[in-house]
Design a protein that fits this description.
This protein is an all-alpha fold. The chain is built from 14 helices and 3 strands. It is 60% helix and 2% strand.
């Protein structure tokens, strides 16, 4: 199996096309990370939400649910989100991943297949491996092991296995993070199409690099589109609300940072009275900037849907 060899040899022996794909992926990921580090706290949080949603192709509503105060939404997606956040916190602290820790984060039983060859790769047993290369090799090795497909050159389409897809996606995210390719959990392998998991992706080294490059570019485009959305909405508020724009702009800034807000939270955060905060939120709703997402008469929450749509998996930057 390829992951038992020196990681560097896997790239050097792969051919010029694969090397170019690797360089392309490394460049795209570097650009995404540079853009993300300069973004606001709210947009950086959206990158994390996109990273959580990408393996399953979850929509913007699923992303919003992850930050709703009432804890609604897909329980499996929320559990995966917890695994990503916990794992990224460990990765930023320098903790190396292992097959056991990946399964532990996902609350999966330990695998029946031998984990030690993959752990050798994850822990840099052979040599210090560039994070983008390590992430791609780990994705291939985990797909082969978790799906029971030992021939990594096969073009056979494997059965949909959500647990295998999440395992691969989580490994990629954490390896990029711990290796310094990304500052936080900002990138992973996405779903390969509607209704398909990451287990259906191209089972080749070059194909994995290409998928990472595409996802990094899509995330960067989405980030830039979200930033443009905020700038446009700020101008709309100024043009539409006159003197009332002052409190509405403060609420808009909070909404951009928190993504989902409530009126009591807004009042406390901005030092406003609840009626003033409620009126400002209502103005943003009237302008189509904020949207109520609970459908309840009480304990209502409002989301900045436009910026979430900008980073929705599969549609980043197309608004």
């Amino acid at each position: 199996m390829e992951h038992t060899r020196s990681p560097a040899s896997a790239l050097s022996s792969a051919g010029s096309d694969v090397v170019r794909s690797y360089e392309d992926a490394a460049t795209a990921i570097g650009r995404l990370d540079a853009t993300g580090r300069l973004a606001s706290a709210g947009l950086r949080e959206l990158l994390v939400l996109r990273c959580i949603a990408a393996p399953s192709g979850a929509s913007h509503t699923g992303m919003i649910a992850l930050v709703r105060p009432d804890g609604e939404g897909d329980g499996l997606l929320r559990a995966y989100g917890n695994a990503v956040r916990d794992g990224a916190a460990r990765a930023r602290g320098g903790a190396l991943a292992s097959v056991a820790t990946l399964h532990g984060l996902l609350r999966l039983p330990l695998p029946a297949w031998p984990a030690s060859p993959i752990d050798e790769l994850l822990r840099d047993t052979h040599e210090r491996t560039p994070p983008v290369l390590k992430a791609a090799l780990a994705a291939l090795a985990l797909r082969a092991a978790a799906l029971g497909e030992l021939d990594e050159t096969t073009e056979k389409s494997e059965p949909n296995d959500p647990n295998a897809a999440r395992l691969v996606a989580l490994a990629v995210t954490l390896l990029l993070c711990v290796g310094g390719a990304t500052t936080d959990a900002w990138l992973t392998l996405p779903s390969s199409g509607a209704g398909k998991s990451a287990s259906h992706a191209d089972l080749s080294l070059g194909g994995t690099f290409a998928a990472l490059a595409r996802e990094a570019r899509a995330a960067e485009r989405g980030l830039l589109a979200a930033r443009d959305c905020i700038d446009t909405d700020q101008q709309r508020v100024r043009d539409s609300l006159g003197r009332a724009a002052y409190s509405a702009l403060d609420v808009l800034a909070l909404l951009g940072d928190k993504i989902v807000i409530t009126v009591p939270e807004t009042a406390r955060a901005l030092g406003l009275t609840p009626p003033t905060a409620g009126a400002a939120v209502a103005r943003l709703v009237e302008l189509g900037i904020a949207r109520e997402v609970t459908g309840k008469a009480r304990s209502r929450a409002f989301a900045y849907e436009g910026i979430v749509r900008a980073l929705e998996p599969g549609s980043a930057g197309k608004q």
